[in-house]
Every structure is written in C-alpha cells, then in structure tokens.
Amino acid sequence: MPDNSPPNIARKRPLEGIRVIELGQLLAGPFAGSMLAYFGAEVIKIETPTGGDPIRSWREVQNGTSLWWHSIGRNKKSVTIDLKTEQGRNLARQLIDTADVLIENFRPGVMETWGLGPDDIKQTNPSLIYTRISGYGQDGPNASKPGYASVCEGYSGFRYVNGFENQAPVRPNLSIGDSIAGLHATLGIALAIIERNNNQTNEGQVIDVALYESMFNLMEAVIPEYDGAGVIRQPAGTTVTGIVPTNTYRCRDNKYVVIGGNGDAIFKRLMIAAGQPDMAADPLLAHNAGRVKQEQAIDKALADWCLANNQQAIIDILEAERVPVGPIYNAEDMLNDPHYQARGMFEQVEIDGKPLKIPAMLPKLTSTPGKTSWPGPTLGSHNDEIFKDLLGLTDEHLSRLKTDQIIS
Q: Is position 282 annotated as part of the catalytic site?
C-alpha cells in the first residue's frame, strides 16, 4: 500500500518571517522584543549611537556589558540611529516601512513629534502593527506623567496588597510592572497578527499597553469585592486573605517552606503529619470558613512544627502525604535543581569565550519551540547588514551618516 503519511518537514518557529522594529529601551519594550525574537521574529533594535540601551550598563557588569543584556538582547539585531536628528528619523522611517510590527515605549506624544506616530506611518505602511507601551496609556489625564514601573505598580493597586499589615507596602526586587506590561504587549501583538491575517484589507492596528493596567489585570477580585461587599482587600504578609492554611514557614536550618494545606482533605493529612490529630479531626476546622476563624492557632501549630525540623525533612514528610509543599529558591538553588534542568529552563551562550547561563523563555511549544540563537549583540553590530542589505544604502552613504554621527 502507498505511504500517504505527510512528509516529515521541519516546522518553522511561529514568528519566522515577521520583522519587528524595537524602539523601546530599558525593560517593557525590550522584554516584548525578546519574546518575539525567541519565537522566530527578526527583531531590529534601534539604539542611540552613544551608549545604546541603558540596560547594557545596569546591575552586574563584566567587560563593560551588563550580564542582563546578554539575556534581554538575545536574538536581536542592533543598529544605531540618532532619532533626535531629521536624518536619523528618516532612516528609522525607512526601516519601519519594511516592518510588520513596531514596538515603542517612549512618553506619549514623542513619536508624533518625530513624525513617526501611527497616523504618519499608516500612510506608507498600513499593515504595520504599532505597539505602544507607556505608564498610563496614550490618553487620559495621566498620559503625560512619567511611567516608571515602581509608581505604576502602586497606582495599579498591586503594591497596596503586597506587604504586611500596618507597614509600608513592599515591592519584589524585580521590575515586575515592566515585565508584565511586556507580556501584555506580546500577547497583543500575537492577537493583532492573527487578526491581520484574517482581515481582507491586511491592515494593522495600534496596541496601547499601559503598565498600570497590565498590573491591574492581575488584581483578581479586589474590585467586585469592594463594589459588591464594601471590602477593601488588605496586605496579608506571607498569607492569602480568606484561605487557610497557606503560608511560608521558617525551618530549623533557617530555610523556608511554603505549605498550601487549604483543601479540606489536604488539611487533615497536613495536620496529622504535623502532629496535630485533634485539629485534623475537629469538625469546626473541616471547611475553609471555620479554618479562617482559627487562622492564628493553625499557623502557630505549623510554625512550631517547621521550626523543629529542617526544610528537607518537612518537604519529605508532606510530599509523602500528598500535601502541596516546596522550598523558597534563590538563583543558586534554581541552577542546581534537577527539575529545572530536566525542563530545559536554562540555555547557555558564550561571551568572550566564556559560558554564561541565561533563562529559557516561555511558553513551551512542542513542535515549534523558541530558542536562543545568539546573546545580546554589541552596539551597532548589525549596521552594515541592515542598512546595506535591507535598505540598500551605499558605503558612501553610510560613511556620511557616520561622519554626521547619525549612526556609530
């Protein structure tokens, strides 16, 4: 019989063939660009000729370049253009006219001032998906305010519930508002590409991502709880309001475990394992509503038990009883963990002949996974490829642009 099975053809990454111009800097825009590049898009990052993206020099710097840059700049092509000059803006416009997607995270109005706003670009590239990331969005009374992630996280309501009662709200030691906004931008771009492929005109659209709205999107039931019941959710430290027990506990070896014992059957197994059979059998604690009333007593019993045992002992005991439990990990713990390794959560690049591990990016796709093809490039290292091969500029033209300090 003839073999009618389809040929085994290697499938491309989902975004191969999509060209992205990245005009953002620091984190929100570049994080979105990194995700698109990881899944196959050609991302051309436009940077200032003098220094480039500030992330190149942030945090831990080796040989003049931030270790962070090698991760967030992965798979991108770096070109330098001085956008404060008319020549530079004209050059950028030529690149934008070749693109499927633009990402920018300047203050609202800056791109319009440069003649590079959505209405300007639509005249020559109507299919462009124009992605804008800012603190407060492109309109509204706060649009012109500086949109730093720290401020926007507070404005979103996220910081209010993050911390301990009667203490100043705390922040994670991460720019989470930027990263969450970058994720929303990536999702918006994917949706817009699908829509553009399905509409007959092949027109693009504008994606308006605000940092505060991206964080607000994570706020679960805080609005209906207040509007329907007049309840303002408060910070709850290491717990979650209204769900008991779920908390973080210190162990004898000064390490921590997170225990989630809030299921009714799970709670019984947890308390028996923790040497509290009376609590396990108490009918008043059989359901979450009763446990909420006795939260302090339950937490004290679990805290005392954890303090009497080392972290691994607690984990071993509770895993044997099918109770959700886990350690609090730092970077060293993650790198050494066999599950992280088995799941391929680290990729290795080479920097000046030395290996460097960077995180893999998600989500995982079984047939067309993303990958890191190269680490963040040196500033302007793709000038010749992009300006000569893509735009067709001559060596003489490039020489004049360098002389005029439009490119580096």
A: no
